[in-house]
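Continuing the series of single-chain predictions for the mutant panel. This is the parent chain; the variants come on the following pages.
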Amino acid sequence: MLRKSEQFSIPFEEYDSAESSAPKQWRFVYDWLDSLVYAFLTILLIFTFLFRIVGVSGNSMKPTLHNGDWLAVRAINTSVSRGDIVVITQPNSLNEPLIKRVIAVGGDTVDIDFVEGTVKINGDVINEPYIYEPTHRMSNVAFPLTVPEGCVFVMGDNRNDSLDSRSRTVGFIDTRYILGVVQFRFYPFGEWTIYNYE
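Parent structure:
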């Protein structure tokens, strides 16, 4: 007959391994969840304070952007340069944001030859490797014109299928209504680059 102290004795090594295996499993799960939460918070902070995600609707920016693309837009610094693709929130009759390319900035003179399909900025024909086809579509704005300070002149890359600054419906864009400058394509995955004509 076993003494009371020997009835429930477990070898020390077995007891130790049984005790330690459960906490190790939970620690692995905890570490994994902890990493996941921190990664999610980091991504959330980046896209809240550095970038915004904006979807493309329509074909006015072909061949650079396509309907259904998702873009990362730099939201901190909204100073823009010629050639930048911007997201515009200026009120318009379409009641929706626009995604267009900045062609001219404040103080620039814009002239478009709709027969030749060329665009001049300050008297010089600009090189536009990003357009779908030459600029032949006219609207109700007369050229040449000078862009007011604090504004930009924008056009879509698909020049003959774009409502932009050539129309009084859109007109000059007050830079205060520029949500941000497009940095890269977020989706489709793997097709990140949009400024690939340089």
